[in-house]
Fold this protein.
Amino acid sequence: MNSAIVVGSGPNGLAAAIRLAQAGVGVTVLEAAGRIGGGTRSGEAIVPGLLHDHCSAVHPMAVGSPFLAGLGLDRYGLRWRLPEIDCAHPLDDGSAGVLHRSVAETAAGLGVDGRRWERLFGHPAAGYDLLAEDILGPLLRFPRHPLRLARFGLPALAPATLVARLFATEQARALFGGVAAHAFHPLEKPFSSSIGLGILTAGHRYGWAVAEGGSQRIADAMAALLTELGGTVETGVRVRSASDLPAADVTLYDLTPTAVADILGDRLPARVARAYRRFRYGPGAFKVDFAVEGGVPWTAEAARRAGTVHVGGSLAEIAFTEREIHRGRMPERPFVLAGQQYLADPGRSAGEVHPVWTYAHVPHGYTGDATEAIIAQLERFAPGFRDRIVGTSTRTTQGFAGYNANYVGGNILTGAKDVRQLVLGPRATTQPYDTGLPGHFLCSAATPPGPGAHGMCGAKAAERALRHLRLSEA
């Protein structure tokens, strides 16, 4: 039997391990932390019984992942739950851009911009399952559905600010801009629309789902399947150098490129080592979890029913804050993402005390405390919020890096998602999962298609490993 080691038990590491085990390879996953899951861990915080996601929380890309969808993870306890409203983007006048799973329902709420929203998302969302075959993998290859990809890809090449100008109302512009800002990238830069378009299209097909019982359930279900397939997971095992690696026919790394360069050292080809060490990291996240009595009193009524709320004001304001954090300056009013997962999954609450998950976009490695800035932004759109806070728990950029070594400087996307790194991964090659060292492969979110709990980076890297073992024609 062929053998494999997978370093890291985030969704990509587990996806790689599962795909290898499905092909009959003996797999061992090594995890440095005491608990599996990487960015999909969850736990009680602040108040007993109050469940918070540690990082990844809402999963429009995971619920429709071509790889995860075929695993039957419901057999291992994974249940997806959807809020009444996927996302709301409140504005200072009390109105909001409102995102529903249905393209038509979203369009109906956007007034004069409804027809343009339908034109932009109707066709891609209806054909998302085919589109995903091309966008959830390396882009430097001949697409399976070239016309469909071209229709999606043309606006994806444009700056988010340019695409947003297709809309006449501030509600539609801010709604689109807030989703595009998930890329932690200046909105006036080319290709800054791509991640937002991908999230919106996937969400219109499958919804902005949460995992019942917390994001940890995703990793736990994947680990249960892996065990059933004969694989094993060892926690508390940190790999610092090649000498720490057990012998195996293939080794896959759910790590940053710089970490792989440190582990493999001069075993890597010089050109690959240089590229990995030059890998760029983007801005960071500063996270505050709140225990809130009675929930958040949003002025915009739709926000009270939304699983995700983007707190950042107008499109122009969001664009300004994203530019500032890229320049290393902390804005007074940062862009804040707020998660109200309990609306779809009430079991996360403790009576009338609800968990509210938030993080602000901050400069890379930010050493200040953004707690008050986050509270002020929430108070801006939900007067009285401050008085409902029962308790808080914070995670700084340094805390994120300690929680998950892939989050360098608090960069929870595992690398800056500019044009080059989003399309190519850590180096210029048509095979972004290959390290240049035979039998060793990179499977983290540093590779295409990038961040999310979809597991596609791991599944694609595993196919490369199987080809190396001559067990696949992929």
